[in-house]
Amino acid sequence: MPQINRNDTINLASKLTFKRCWNGIKVLSSFYISKLMNRPVQWGYPVSISFEPTTSCNLRCPECPSGLRAFTRPTGMLQKDFFTRTIDEIHEELLYLIFYFQGEPYLNPDFLEMVKYASSKGIYTATSTNAHYLNDAAAKKTVESGLDRLIISIDGTTQDVYQQYRIGGNLDKVIEGAKNIVRWKKELNSKTPFVFFQFLVVKPNENQVNDIKKLAAEVGVDEVRFKTAQIYDYETDPNQLIPATDKFSRYKKNADGSYTPKNKLANRCWKMHHANVITWDGLVVPCCFDKDAMHRLGNLKTQSFKSIWKNDNYKQFRNDLMKSRKNIDICANCSEGASVWRD
After folding, report:
1. I need a labelling partner for 162 at 20 to 30 A (CA). Which of 100, 174, 300, 312 fits?
2. Contacts of 211 (CB under 8 A, 6+ apart)
């Protein structure tokens, strides 16, 4: 589950119920029992899930399957009736709902209605956006929807730098969208959504780390967070995106000029116990690293969520992970949650 800032901890805590607390205890216990026994044990249901509003996107970011139009799976929009049916099944255990996987959420015309529905069930809701569609009307509806957290991706403080990664993007629109949200929060006297700029640190923008903090203060967002970039061909870095500053990178440079991931992968994974991802068309996959949904553990169009969570496919995947995680393709480039930090 994403990091929680002290300023919205109270908001998250307000979503807790006895059933959600008890479910969280079971999930956490099963993680440590699995570690102790060296075999997968799974109690409870996910504390957090990601639901994909769409795979469509207006930008062409070089390390994103949506931006590259590189999916083998179909592009489409999450349907509201399917979403509400799934939420009805799992809302009593579910604490945290991320309305994002691939694509730009605001391209789905029913997106904010789905946020509103989840909020009505007392679920903490979050999304990530490139902010190109946060016009005045959309910003007002966003605040009114009950969205708890809004992540705005902004990877540069000048247009020439911003567009080197956010290809096709307009920085002025991003800043305007952020200002619209901040203004409507004040006008509606709303404490939510908690808004932060997320700055993906890559070589073209690493010299603007201090500048983004100043811009965030000017706009009035709540926080800035920095994120290291996942590079698919990291060994050679063909797009030349890996930063020169070591702390901004997931990878270390070898003597021969190649790169290797910094992280040491243990044969266990917290995400496999407490979270998962649902694509727009109902495929259940292990986590956000399975961007093309190659590890399909179930299909919500034909099965219930709770039956999938404990089915044979899930059991086999958890077992394979605990035997040799490095042999699972989506795990090889995993950052284990250490990819985002605050300054």
Report:
1. 100
2. 157
Lookup: tokens for 106: 């605001």
Q: What is the 3-state secondary structure (H, E, C) of the chain?
A: CCCCCHHHHHHHHCCCCHHHHHHHHHHHHHHHHHHHHCCCCCCCCCCEEEECCECCCCCCCCCCHHHHCCCCCCCCECCHHHHHHHHHHHCCCCCEEECCCCCCHHHCCCHHHHHHHHHHCCCEEEEEECCCCCCHHHHHHHHHHCCCEEEEECCCCCHHHHHHHCCCCCHHHHHHHHHHHHHHHHHCCCCCCEEEEEEEECHHHHHHHHHHHHHHHHHCCCEEEEEECCCCCCCCCCCCCCCCCHHHCCEEECCCCCEEECCCCCCCCCHHHHEEEECCCCEEECCCCCCCCCCCCEECCCCCHHHHHCCHHHHHHHHHHHHHHHHCHHHCCCCCCCCEEEC
Q: CA 102, 111, 338 angle in degrees (round to 5)?
A: 40
Is residue 113 within 8 Å of 183, Cβ to Cβ? no
Kindly state the greatest CA–CA separation across the chain: 57
pLDDT tens by residue, 213-254: 999 999 999 999 998 888 877 777 777 888 888 888 888 888
User: Chain-centre distance of CA 35, in angstroms?
Assistant: 25
Closest among 273, 272, 283 to 51, alpha carbons compared: 283
Q: Which residue, 293, 22, 8, 221, is CA-closest to 125?
A: 8
Strand partners, 340: 227
What's the CA dihedral at 241, 246, 250, 251 to 10 degrees? 80
Q: Is 179 exposed, middle or buried (0-12, 13-18, 19+ CB in 10 A)?
A: middle
CA distance 21 to 28: 11
- For 315-326, the pLDDT digits (tens) are 999 999 999 888
Output the six-digit token pair for 222: 């709540």
Q: How many CA atoms lie within 13 A of 89 on its CB side?
A: 15
The reported pTM is 0.92
